Every structure is written in structure tokens, then in C-alpha cells.
Amino acid sequence: MLTWIALVIVVVMLVAAVLVLTLRSFVAAVAATSVVGLALSVLYVLLQAPDVAMTEAAVGAGLSGVILALALRRLGLWQLDDGEGVGLKPHSGRAGPGGDADA
Amino acid sequence: MPMRNIASLVFSAGLLFLLLVIGAELALGHPDMRVGAEYLRIAGPELGAANIVTAILAGYRGFDTLGELSILFAAATAASLVLGHRRADARRDPPGGLVLTAGADLLFPLLLVVGIFIVVHGHLTPGGGFQGGVILAAAFFVALLANPARTLNHALLGWIEGLAGAAFILIGLWALVEDGHFLTPLLPLGTMGELVSAGTLPLLSVAIGLKVGAELAGLLAHLADTEAPDR
Q1: CA B197 centroid distance within chain
Q2: Which of A5, B40, B46, B158 has its CA 20 to 30 A from that of A70?
Q3: Is B50 on the interface with A (CB under 8 A)?
């Protein structure tokens, strides 16, 4: 049973990690990195390492996602697809929602 | 073949070789190092902390924890130096919508209590200064996210951070004077599992929590405060 749960989590992590590379939207990619961290923290709980799981959930899933999102905003790459940002207004930057990483 | 392909090929081959050697040499499942078993045996009676991870991090490896704190301090200071300047005429983000504002009002006290609980119970339950500190920072950042016009008092954060860091080192120096070893746990151990037990470990945990919390809250506030480009 535990093996199957771990397998599902690992598959979720792999899918999210591949999505980080392939997603066209930066915002969605940042969310996907957080999903990787969150799944990893669940895996740590299964491995009976609650301390590490707590750190991973707080830093890997929460803090790093927030810092990446703030960096996107600073660079003007914070673009929501429908153009209706809440709080953080989208800008008409040169890189569109599918802007490449070189922009 | 371009130079870059050759380089990546060589690199991949080297990595594969390394992994194969490690896989062949490692006696997986048969640890040669007995330090873990030794910690499990002596940490309970010696330090009186129910949470053995904090006992190792603050008790046996306190110097490493001090190193981690210094690295975090250097990183936060550098980030604040680079990002801490804001144009006077830069526009601020408007307040968040209803969902974000109401959610922040609900989350702030909850996160605050959870963070303080984790910091104070560092020697009893999973977690400790670092994890609790991050949660405390998150509590203040959520409030900031809901209303960007609000600002954190960076001078106060600096004072908290400095005093907490100084307290950590002072506890270490106190142990150096008293016992001859830097950061050796002092004070009576008490009963394992009670809030006031395990000597100086809870004090170190609180110092770590305050320092990490103030540092990360300041860092996030600085990051959020930088103006978005007006393009």
C-alpha cells in the first residue's frame, strides 16, 4: 500500500518537474515547481522524517515559489493568461505569456 | 560535432561513470558509519530532548547551525543591499481582492500560532527554530500580500534579527566559559517531554526561530517592495 502511494507521489513529482520545463506560462511553471516541493514533502512524511518534511513544505513548496513569483514580477514576466490579475497587474511586457527564457 | 555537444557528452559519461562506481562500491543497507546509532543511544539521556533531530542540530551540531545562520544572514543582507532601493515615484500594487484580504485576515493569526508553537516546542515535537521561523515569516508576508501599502518595520526586524543572533552566540560563549566547549547544552535537563526541559536547547530554538523569521520576513518584504517595471 505504502509503495503504491509513494509511486503515485513520484509520478506526480516527475510530471510536475517535466511541466516546469514545457509549460509556456511562467506563472504556471512556478506553480509546478511548488507542486514538486509539496509532493516531495509528502514523500518525506512517508519516510518518517517529519522535520525534513516540514522544512521542505515551508521552504521548497512555499518560500521558493514565492521568491520565484516575486522575481517574475520584478522582471515584468508576471502574466496571467486571461489578463485579469488579482493584486498584481499584468503588464504589456515584451515577453508574452509564452515568452522564451531568453527574453 | 560542435564543441558544446562533445563537452556535454564527456560530462554525461563522467557522471555515469561516477554513479556506476558509487553504486558498485556502496554497501547499500549496511551502513559503515555508526554515528547515527550512537546518537540514537546517547542523545535521549544526555540532552533530555524528545525530538532527537533538534537535539542533534542544536546540541551536537550547534556550530553547523551557527554556520547555516551566517549563510542565511549573508544571503539576506546581499539581497536587501541589491533590492532595497525603491524609486520614490514607483507605483504600489493595489490591495488584493476580497478572497486574498479575507484569507489573509484568517491565515495571519493561525500561521502566527503555528509558527510560535513549532519554535517553542522545537525540543519536543518535529520542527524547530528554522521551520517555525519560516512559518512566522510567511504569516507576515501573507498580510503584506493582501495589502501592499502596509510596510514592515525594517529597523525593528533588524533589531530582532541582531539580538536573536547575538543571543545564540552568547549562549554558546556562556557554555564555553562554563563547560569549556562552545555551544554545549547547559542547565538542568528536567523531565523529558515537558515544555521547560532539555537545558538550553529550547532557548537556542527560540533564538534560531526569531532570527530566521525576522530575516526572511525582511527579505520577502524587500523583494515585494521593489517596483515592477512600468513597461
Answers
A1: 22
A2: B158
A3: no
pLDDT value of position B123: 82
CB atoms < 10 A from the CB of A76, how many?
Answer: 19
Higher pLDDT residue, A98 or A3? A3
Residues of chain A that touch chain B, judged by Cβ-Cβ distance less than 8 Å? 50-51, 53-55, 58-59, 62-63, 66-67, 70-71, 73-76, 78, 86-89, 91-94
Q: pLDDT under 50 in chain B at which residues?
A: 231
Inform me whether the C-beta atom of residue B104 falls under 8 Å from chain A C-beta atoms. Answer: no
- Using CA atoms, how far apart are residues A55 and B110, in angstroms rounded to an integer? 18
A10-14 contacts, C-beta under 8 A, 24 or more apart:
A10/A39, A10/A43, A12/A39, A13/A39, A13/A40, A13/A43
Q: In this structure, are residues B97 and B178 in contact, taking their beta carbons and an 8 Å threshold?
A: no
Whether residue B2 is contained in a domain is answered as no
* pLDDT given at position B175: 82
Q: Do the domain assignments include residue B138?
A: yes
- Locate B168 and state its grid cell: 545564540
Residue B125 placed within a domain: yes
* Residues from chain A contacting residue B209 (CB–CB below 8 Å): none
- Expressed as residue numbers, the domain containing B109 is 62-84+93-226
Which cell is B119 given?
519554535
Domain count, chain B: 1
Residue B97 lies in a domain: yes
